[in-house]
Amino acid sequence: MAISEAEVKKVARLARLAVPDDRLEAYTQNLSNILNLVDQLSAVDTTGVEPMAHPLDMMQRLREDVVTETSHREKYQSVAPEVEDGLYLVPKVLE
Amino acid sequence: MSQADSIHTLSLKGIHDGVHTGKFSVMEATDAYLDRIERFNPELNAYITVTRESAQAQAVDIDNRIRKGELTGAMAGVPYSLKDLFCSEGVRTTCASNMLSNFISPYDAHVAAKLKAAGGVLLGKNNMDEFAMGSSNETSAFGNVCNPWDTTKVPGGSSGGGAATIAARLAPMTLGTDTGGSIRQPASFCNITGIKPTYGRISRYGMIAFASSLDQCGPMAPSAEDCAITMNIIAGLDSRDSTSVDLPVPDYTANLNGSLEGLRIGLPKEFFAEGLDAQVGAVIDRAIKEFQAKGAIIKEVTLPNSHLAVPVYYVVAPAECSSNLSRFDGVRFGHRCENPKDLMDLYERSRWEGFGDEVKRRIMIGTYALSAGYYDAYYLKAQQVRRLIKQDFEAAFKDVDVIMGPSCPTTAFGIGAKKDDPIAMYLEDLYTIPVSLAGLPGMTFPIGFAADGLPVGMQLVGNYFEEARMLNIAHQYQQWTDWHTQVPAQFA
């Protein structure tokens, strides 16, 4: 199935990727090729087949609801692009 | 030849014995590898970061602790490297991406901590395909890696830097990861041994995520015995990975010498059909006959849905990657664009600039497959076909103990040959992806060279948690052959 340039633009927005106009055609072509490869699946009869979410069909392991982590704020913020007073900085969101 | 000149020819056990009997020190072993890296890495580009200073500091410490008798284990004093997606505290961890080119990890991955505690010496971080997405190591933002057997060829991927490192003996062991074949395919291209254990056998904590229902860490080394020794250190339950499996960990070295008499080997007819290079097929056939001569029973099996594995994979893996890679937002870590005009601009430009094309393609495919209106047609459908693929293996394992076949349809291809054709690149993994989708353990071990002079690997697939049996089979093969000890002349 081919995907249109308009759809690629929409998907890029959803994925938070600023695809420039001059790359749109190449991306559209490549993504269409991948979707064509994937389209073989539509011909497979999967009536009544349980979707496989986990290779071992295991349930999530649960643990006691107790604190296991200590605070690493300083350590983790040391690798952030911009922080101030222990907070992560982003451009103004509210006017 | 002085001692230091031959340390790189030793196995993990040989290095361990050498440092524990005082034949050479941990520092001498460490320096021997650091010197080889300095000499050969410019040609291969197998390492992104070499941790010379911290390795030497570790070596001093471990030498002391061995002398005091505090460290005696199988990895004590043994150098190793890590694929550059394992977080290592205080060391740059890039995932071969501009997104993380300056990321110094604040903590150790579970497996990195295990090897550190066992007394291993970290030599550095290996090059790879960006975020482990690729089969040739050409998507790395740090340049492609060359195959030591022919430097005009790719080493495979995504653990291509690790495979080249082992092939050229720039470390005696490395950890790679395998999502759709990323340990087994480069192992095949580079004449080394590598195992992708059962999904959940080894903790993924601190291993930068690509596709969470598929990713698994595993050792790459010259021999099956080296891999078994490493598995003993890194396998087992870790509460920080919710998919880590709570099953006893066997001693993977205990049964390496078990007999192969009566072993039932299944050959999937689909893996020997059209598409398999005849030269590769001939080497595989010869190795199968050798197993037969040692008492193994060969049976044909069928995996009728295996041709659907690549399409299933290119829905499931991108879907999971689009979700996992949403954490790279230019706010908490990683690349941030200059002068963002608002929050959306910050996200969109940081991500566009930070990720390479293959990563962005997969994020977009995954976003599309998961988006409203398409979920059932793509993701749900792929999950259903994934079960059919798993059921094929379950049926096959009713008749056989293990499955064997090629790891890859060809030997290593030329640098640049498939770079601009994502689909051709994806089809490289048609024999390894079905195993990944089923969550089964798979390994590659060297079985010789094709007519073009390049290495061929055998893929060995076991039933769930049968890693010890697989390592036993590969080890036995390595007792009567010496392919795994062969090193390209220029790196000998």
What labels describe this entry?
heterodimer, A: 95 residues, mainly alpha, two-stranded antiparallel sheet, 2 strands, B: 492 residues, alpha/beta, Amidase signature (AS) enzymes, eleven-stranded mixed beta sheet, 15 helices, 11 strands, 12% strand
Number of strands of chain B: 11
CATH level 1 name of the domain at 3-256 in chain B: Alpha Beta
Mean pLDDT across residues of chain A: 92
In terms of DSSP E residues, the strand content of chain B is 5-15%
Task: Please characterize this protein's 3D structure.
The complex is a heterodimer of chains A (about 100) and B (about 500). Chain A is flat. The mean pLDDT of chain A is about 90. Chain A is built from three helices and two strands; from the N terminus they run αααββ. The two termini of chain A are about 45 Å apart. Chain A is mainly α and about 100 residues long. Chain B is of the alpha/beta class. Helix content of chain B is about 35%, strand content about 10%. In chain B, a hairpin with a 5-residue loop joins strand 10 and strand 11. Chain B is globular, with a radius of gyration of 21 Å. Chain B starts with 11 loop residues before the first helix and ends in a 12-residue tail after the last helix. Chain B has helices spanning about 10-20, 25-45, 50-65, 110-115, 160-165, 185-190, 225-235, 280-295, 310-325, 345-355, 355-370, 375-395, 420-425, 435-440, 465-480, and strands at about 45-50, 80-85, 120-125, 175-180, 195, 215-220, 265-270, 295-300, 400-405, 440-450, 455-460. Chain B contains 15 helices and eleven strands. Chain B has a domain at about 5-255: Amidase signature (AS) enzymes (Alpha-Beta Complex). In chain B, helix 2 runs antiparallel to helix 3. Chain B has an eleven-stranded mixed sheet with strand order 1-3-2-4-6-5-10-11-9-7-8, sandwiched between helices. The interface between A and B is large, with 53 and 74 residues.
Topology:
The complex is a heterodimer of chains A (95) and B (492).
Chain A lengths: L4 H10 L6 H18 L34 H5 L5 E2 L2 E2 L7
Antiparallel strand pairs in A: 1-2
Chain B lengths: L11 H9 L5 H19 L2 E4 L1 H16 L11 E5 L26 H8 L3 E6 L33 H8 L6 E5 L5 H7 L2 E4 L19 E6 L2 H11 L29 E5 L9 H16 L3 E5 L7 H16 L18 H12 L2 H14 L5 H21 L5 E5 L15 H5 L6 H6 L3 E8 L5 E8 L4 H14 L12
Parallel strand pairs in B: 2-3, 2-4, 7-8, 7-9
Antiparallel strand pairs in B: 1-3, 4-6, 5-6, 5-10, 9-11, 10-11
Helix pairs in contact in B: 2-3, 5-6, 7-15, 9-11, 9-12
